[in-house]
Amino acid sequence: MITYVLFAIGFVLLIKGADWLVAGSASVAKKYNVSDLVIGLTIVSMGTSMPELIVNVIASMSGSSEIAIGNVVGSNIANILLILGVAAFIYPLTIKESTIFSEIPYSIIAVLLVAFLANAPIFNPTYSLIISQLDGIVLMLFFGLFMLYIIKLAKEGRADMVEDAPDEVLPMGKSILFISLGIVALFLGGKWVVDGAIAIAEQFGLSQNLIGLTIVAIGTSLPELVTSAVAAMKKNTDIAVANVIGSNIFNLLWVLGLSAMISPMKYDPVINTDILVLLAASCLIIFSLMTGKAKNQIGKPTGIFFLVCYVAYTAFLIYRG
Q: Are 220 and 35 in contact (CB under 8 A)?
């Protein structure tokens, strides 16, 4: 029973830990005159992906690679179908052409890259399917290219690609306290979530893939859900969309890449189905923009359709077991 209680508390700690770490780190950076843009590109952007990273690193080191990979793929599917669906239901999302022709295609390339690297050994029967440390390095290199692209956009004045950094500058002691609390909360939260996920899978005879793709994925996507929903309510659709697309790229390239570099991850071929769902969901964004009534806009009906698709996908996962 205590494992399940800690499992629930773990998600709270992951979310609060990311908030504390971002607030403390951003405050220290601003104290030393680091620009809001740089803070947004690094601390804030990575902060929303920190829950996925911590869960993945702990799961990977624990030998639970199915949870780690399922968490990333499941989080990305939830980001598109669930989070974009909720945001579009709240307020129509207008997407800039540069996002349509640059960032979204790059997120699709990231999906295809992970699929290729994970399945490459399939052509040589003597090797098992894994995301190796070398694969992790390749993913991190592509992540570096993405960061260079973001910096280029920033220099051109596209600072709207990232969330605004916090304006408040905390006292140094409080900043260090927030950073320390954030690190501890993230570590404990990640450990309890992974331990709880393994326990649930074992007790109910469920696969770790299922737990990673559903409960863990949704739990670690909560920061993105809150950010996009609030942005939509404030009619700041750039942040709502950029948050989702950017998070997906961070998860596939940074989170999965760093996890693989720490410890190679066994890849279950059944995840290929979920990779295809993620690929289809990514392409669905572009398709919905091309066929929508308003130009470059995801409206309320499309948001509802996204949510229905996510419910159907979740039902499929439960049926698959």
A: no
Domains of the chain, residue spans: 2-320
Q: Are the CB atoms for 253 and 146 separated by under 8 Å?
A: yes
Q: What is the DSSP letter of 269?
A: T
Contacts of 136 (CB under 8 A, 6+ apart): 256, 257, 258, 259, 260, 261, 262
User: Is the pLDDT score of 126 beyond 70?
Assistant: no
Let me know: does 289 contact 87? Beta carbons within 8 Å. no
Distance separating alpha carbons of residues 280 and 274, to the nearest angstrom: 10
**CATH topology (fold) of 2-320:** A middle domain of Talin 1 (1.20.1420)
Dihedral pair phi/psi, residue 183, rounded to 5° = -65, -45
pLDDT tens per residue, range 24-79 = 887 887 777 766 555 655 666 677 778 888 888 888 888 888 888 999 999 999 99
Is residue 231 within 8 Å of residue 243, measured between CB atoms? yes
**What is the Cα–Cα distance from 282 to 320, expressed in whole angstroms?**
22
**Nearest to residue 189, comparing CAs of 279, 35, 58?**
58
The first and second tokens of residue 221, run together, are: 């996507």
Query: Of 68, 310, 319, which is closest to residue 212 (Cα–Cα)?
Result: 68
